[in-house]
């Protein structure tokens, strides 16, 4: 988990001519974007794919071939169709759980960091307690006790068990932002607590919140897979996890039906890798000190800045008043 | 004889390329034609050393053994009731294919109408400690049910008034109110006989709660004694002074029977495929892949469904729920289920086509089935007809796509079965999709086993996949009783032991009595057919598939002469008559 304390203050100060260029997206970012977009497209492809995930097109574990790119699963359904539906479900669960977890985490962190005092102690105490309990155990217990598990209930359950580390990190940043001058100005001008939190504190940690959200999405997709593998997945829906669950239950590994368990495994790997890479590359975008762009780019940027500085100097030097003191050794 | 020619369905092999029976290098069995080998006609070359004389078995024990008291709640293999006649034995042995009751500890039996049953014991039976087996042991075994009414054996006395001995003959006076000969014979075929000497002590030590008494030294009459039981395995050693050497024609072929304890099906299946296990009782998806890849693996039926059907997992329906209390709806549900799909995928092809009957159309029960009636008044998968039946009964499809009548929607209903019972989990997934597609709102839900069982027994469910009596001396009557009996009806919220769907009917009890007390086969057939007709009219529950009573699969890597269709000297069983083959297996190597 990255908890880099970054501030966009310097970044947002001076508007630049080309905002995209100033973001300085790295190759890693584009790679991550391609991966994530690929998975999202795979999820959406289910809408145009001719075969539905619940259509029986063959028998138990038919090998790929005969118009079925990935063969059939243990129900005789088209693995590719199930994979598309499953990817979509997993992404939905990931997004919803990510939104829930990030919202809870950021809210608690903001309030705790800004308000401080005993209230902060209390909130952080709760957070630390929750952090100490293994999330997967809580997840399993809640899932078992739910009367029925749907996509939405699962997403919310995952969301409300994975916010604590976000809350901790946000609190640290919020408490540092809380001591800055512009907050005092806001307070003196009579702004309310909510207003200050949203308008004056949040923007400074927004970049971090976005990165936390990306991580939460990846984490939630994996958590869903873990739960579904145990058979606690959403009933009546396909997800990457339920696909793995059924392939385990029907011993796809032992009977050599690789097409039943490899694709979901691969997509899970891709999606979590893509999101993690995205988070790491966003880190570079938001925090110039971490940039690891190509040397050539760095040189270009340095040259560009030197050029600008020279031009500025030339502009200033143009009226050339001899009244300006020049230090010894300066070129005249 | 059995080789390559009689292959049939599995003949997608590379034109019988493999050599038979350890052919490479002309091993031990050269020249001899082996029978009872893998479905591909293959056999192994046998193990070397001590292991060549041992039988490795699996699929019965999943946790470390704690007690070998056959009356305990969870006794270890092979002391658990009716699992195998290795240590303990039963008076009679049921044969699942022929339906016969073969002699066991009793040399013969005679049923005198519905009045009484007479048993004559074998001569010279001894316990493992050398002491003599007497009729007293038999009487005491059943009397334990009177000492501790919590034991399963106590139900014997519901149907029996008196059990007395005269010399070597036992006389059982049947309860004349119930006249249930089948249930009594079932007890005689499944109840292990224990030593009075040992269990008198048990009663004393446990203060009459016999189930709680623990022992690691089972004292039986069978051909094996317990040698070792620990976390990883249970080992039985051949009892050289076995009483039945004349009766069975010798001692068992193996010196030891070893049951390794695995964590999961997967471990066992892998070892089985590699020939480290000789025979097992486990669900193996697509077992044909094993013999298609040249392993000497075989099943009793050489072609689909490979296993002899012996049980009938039912979709139980809680008939107290609004909507499900309507027979028309239940019949529509029975039409909505794609049985072929369940058999093919969830059961991996190990189930034949389901008939609309509570009688298994195969083996021992087949004689009681009226096939034409089952086909004429029954149901098969037909989604259009299912919807038609609902419409005829006055249901209309609402805007949500689900049928309803008088504001009563069909659903939302939950289909439950224990988590991890994978074949049933998959079957219910298919059922849920089928019901959704005809406009009935149903979804699956898989609680833990204990939770599922209590929900079913207490009537706290909508629909469930659960088992009823498997083929035995008392079926099909027992199955009709399990599904339909109105005797001692328990209202929802109280524990029921039969008719979990709480289906109420006025005539069923009389029909059940008529079937159980029928004096001859003709009247028995008539009564059973009447029951089956009532069942088809009312559909209190319906079967989803057939399942083997036991998954009997063998690997002829070390032993040949396994029982199979083409070598049917014994039944594909472990329990009852399934001890026959341990005397007849032939070692391949050495």
Automatic annotation (TrEMBL), chain A:
Renumbered residue ranges of the record's region Disordered: 311-332
Protein location: Cell membrane
CC per GO annotation: plasma membrane
Protein name, per record: ABC transporter permease
Main location: membrane
Family designation: Belongs to the binding-protein-dependent transport system permease family.
Originating organism: Brachybacterium saurashtrense
Domain called ABC transmembrane type-1: residue spans: 87-279
